[in-house]
Structure formats: C-alpha cells, structure tokens
Design a protein that fits this description.
79% of the residues lie in helices and 0% in strands. It is mainly α. Helix 3 packs across helix 16, helix 4 packs antiparallel against helix 5 and helix 8 packs across helix 12. The protein binds tryptophan. The site of tryptophan has 15 residues, from helix 1, helix 2, helix 10 and helix 14.
Length: 440
C-alpha cells in the first residue's frame, strides 16, 4: 500500500493527461502501456529487490550489495534527482492546495474554460500566493517526516485511496454523459500512428518512470522495509496495475471533457486545472464533490512527496554520519526542507518571469526540472540500476527473492535477468538517443 501511495500521485492525475494530450492521445497510451510492462515492471522489481536484499536505503544499498564503493556515485545522482523532482512537484502540489481552497469558497462556480484558464494564469503569476501554497506543502511533508508519522499516513491512505478511485469512477461516469464525449474517447483510445515520433516514445518512457516512482531510489527504501515473506513480483504487478488504472481513469475523465468544453488537449501543465473544476461543477452536490476531490488529490500528492523527501533526508543523515558534523534525522529534515524551499522559490520566480535570467533557453525552471528529471535523470538512473542488478549481483540471490512460489520462481527470475541484462539497458539507450535527436 505504501509503495502504491508513492506511485499514485500527481503523475497520474495531473501529468499523465497533459503529456498524453501533447503526444497524440491514443498512440501515446499504447506506447505508455508497453513501456509499463516492458520497463516499468522489471524496474519496479529491480528497485524493490535492491532495497529488500540490502535492507538499506539508497545510500547504503549499493555498497552493501557490492561490498565496495564503486557504485556510490549512483546514490548521489539519485539524491540529486530527488531534489530536482521536488523543485517542481511541490509547486504543483501547491496548485492542488490552492484549488482545494477554491473548492471550499466555490470560487470557480459558473466559470467557463476561458475564465478558468485566466484564473490559472493569474495563480501562476501571483508570486506570494504560489510561494505560500508550495511552502505549505513542503512544511506538511517535513512535518510527517519530523514526527515520524509515516505509518499513520499509510493507514489513512488505505482508506482514502479507494475513495479517490470511487470518486474518479463517478466523475468518469458523469463526463461520459456530456455531449460530444465520444470525440475525447476516440482521441484517447484510437492510436493514430502517424503521430508516433521518437519524442513520443521518450515522453512515454519518462512518464512511465515518473508515474511508477522509478529511477531515483525511492522504491529501494520501500524494498528495505518490505516484510520478508512479501513477494516482490506480486507487489510490483499490483502497483503497476493500480498506477496505470488511475492514469487511464484520469484520461477517461479529462479527454471527453476537453473536447466537450472546447479546450486544446495539448494545452500543457494547466490542462487538468482548467478542465477539472468545470467537470466538478457538473456533478451532483458540486460543492461537496469539489472539496472531496481536491482534498483527495492533495493527499495523493502528499503521499508522493513524503517518498521523495524521505530519500533525500535518509541520504543526508547517512552521508553525514561518518563526518565531523553528523546530522540527526531532525536536522536533516530541516536542511532538506530549506534546500527544497530554495529550489521551489527559484522555480516559482522563473515562472513569474523575474528575474529573467531564471528563464533558461526560453524555458522556465519548472520545465527544466520536469524534463530533466523525467527524460534524462530517471532513465539514466534506471539504466544504471538495471546494469547493476543484471551484471554485478549474483543470480541465485535474485531467484530467491523474486517470488515465493517455488514453481514459477525460477522461470520469472530467468526472464527477469534477461530483461534487465539486455532489453532494459539497450532499449533505454536507443529511446534516449532517438528522443534527444542524437541518433538517426
Ligand atoms: N510517482 C509519483 C506520482 O506519480 C511521483 C513520485 C513520488 C516519484 N516519488 C517518486 C517520482 C520517486 C519519481 C521518483 O506522482
């Protein structure tokens, strides 16, 4: 449940629809599902395995398994990746908090798509408001880590996640009753292969990593806490299935509404925030529906930010342990929160356009953090982790850990080894070079 809580987040509900919208809808969905099965699943298993086998979080895991420091650099890159993701993830979490308060005051009542878009742009250019909501998200996450109430949050999300799913099913039902909803469904489910470019494949791969929380070592930590008898293969299949279900459900909610309301599906990060309030307004008990949905979305976001920040906090504690200034957990939480707040401030400043040097190459830091993490850091970290497990660890340990059922155990392990040895590294390199336009 905790791993699912980390995976299901804004990546599914906010990011998936807009990336799918920008990359051709149906064709993207198809490539995305293939990516989840071919790369997502084995890499989920890889990270959980590294964690479970070593019993350590990212800083200790590689050196424990290899008994030397040669892979230590990877833990540093993972930690940096976490910081970069947090630099923009907290900004989006802040947007969710803002929309939660807007739901309470029913501020978006009666607005059409054009005024909702204006409202969103107003929010993004309002520096103090953006900063307050994003800092609130950082502080909430820091508080969970400070008071060590992860377990409580996990128990809470056991109730709230199913509730989010039910709410999303209800919204999907309402959206499908809109006039013209079939155009959106066609856009999302009918693959137009002329839209399939190398960039679409790279976007799908990056989205798959982001959504499943792969490629920064977050799941190594979860693997380390996994009970002995729990099966890595089954857990990975369940998490990948649930995460993809939520993403597809988000697509079924967003796209019919996008076309019914006359919004551009390639709108970008603002897409869901322009469409969701209008959908919620059309639900029965619209005021309560809005409050319920945005509170659930906020909680889904926080269960993900907890997993992001946890990695960096644990890293800071462990790295400093052997220095002259060891940081205890509380000091690490403070240090990491301040660092994240600086990054978030830079990100928001860049989005409001001042100072102008924070806009680099025509793109805001928000875009840079987002693209760099999903399309560069996470695939490369995942590439390294696949090589690590595939080529540098003893094979029998893997067979032992991957499954608890004796019959299929060796079969799964054999397939798995081939996939992480060859398929995953080669495919990541090919997609990566192709997508970046360096090859072909
Ligand atoms: N997967 C989360 C989402 O979909 C985001 C996330 C949480 C994440 N922890 C992560 C992404 C670790 C990469 C790595 O919203």
């Amino acid at each position: 449940m905790a791993t699912a809580g980390s995976a299901v987040g804004l990546g599914n509900i906010w990011k998936f629809p807009y990336i799918a919208g920008q990359n051709g809808g149906g064709a993207f969905l198809l490539v995305y599902i293939i990516c989840v099965i071919l790369f997502g699943l084995p890499l989920l298993m890889t990270e959980l395995y590294i964690g479970k086998q070593s019993g350590k979080s990212v800083y200790g895991a590689f050196r424990t398994l290899r008994k030397n420091n040669r892979w230590q650099w990877l833990s540093w890159v993972c930690m940096l990746t976490g910081l970069v993701i947090m630099g923009f993830y907290f900004v989006v979490t802040g947007w969710c908090f803002h929309y939660f308060t807007a739901a309470i005051t029913h501020a978006y009542k009666g607005m059409d798509s054009a005024s909702l878009l204006d409202h969103f742009h107003g929010l993004v250019s309002d520096f103090p408001t953006m900063l307050s909501y994003s800092f609130l998200a950082v502080l909430l996450t820091a508080a969970v880590l400070w008071f060590d109430v992860n377990k409580g949050i996990e128990r809470l999300s056991k109730i709230l996640m199913p509730l989010l799913l039910i709410m999303m099913f209800l919204m999907a039902g309402r959206v499908l009753m809109l006039d013209g909803s079939n155009i959106g469904i066609q856009f999302f489910f009918q693959a137009d292969f002329s839209k399939l470019t190398p960039q679409v494949v790279l976007a799908a791969l990056g989205q798959c990593f982001f959504s499943l929380s792969i490629g920064m070592g977050a799941l190594i930590t979860y693997g380390a806490y996994m009970p002995k008898e729990q099966d890595i293969t089954i857990t990975s299949v369940q998490v990948a299935f649930l995460d993809t279900l939520v993403a597809i459900l988000a697509g079924i909610i967003i796209f019919p509404a996008v076309f019914a309301f006359g919004v551009n599906p390639a709108e970008g990060p603002e897409l869901v925030f322009v469409v969701l309030p209008e959908i919620l307004e059309k639900m029965s008990f619209s005021w309560l529906s809005g409050i319920l949905f945005f509170s659930l979305l906020g909680i889904a976001a926080i269960t993900s930010t907890i997993s992001l920040m946890e990695v960096v906090v644990a890293f800071a504690t462990e790295v400093s342990a052997h220095t002259r200034h060891p940081l205890n957990r509380h000091k690490s939480v403070i240090l990491v929160s301040i660092t994240v707040m600086v990054m978030v401030t830079a990100c928001i400043s860049s989005m409001t356009g001042s100072p102008s040097w924070l806009i680099i190459g025509g793109h805001t830091l928000f875009d840079w953090f987002d693209k760099l993490s999903s399309c560069v850091f996470m695939p490369l970290n995942a590439f390294a982790m696949a090589l690590f497990v595939g080529w540098f660890l003893p094979k029998d340990g893997i067979a032992h850990q991957l499954g608890n059922q004796p019959g299929i155990k060796t079969y799964i392990a054999d397939c798995y080894i081939q996939i992480v040895r060859f398929l995953v590294p080669l495919a990541i390199i090919a997609i990566f070079l192709n997508g970046l336009g360096l090859w072909k």
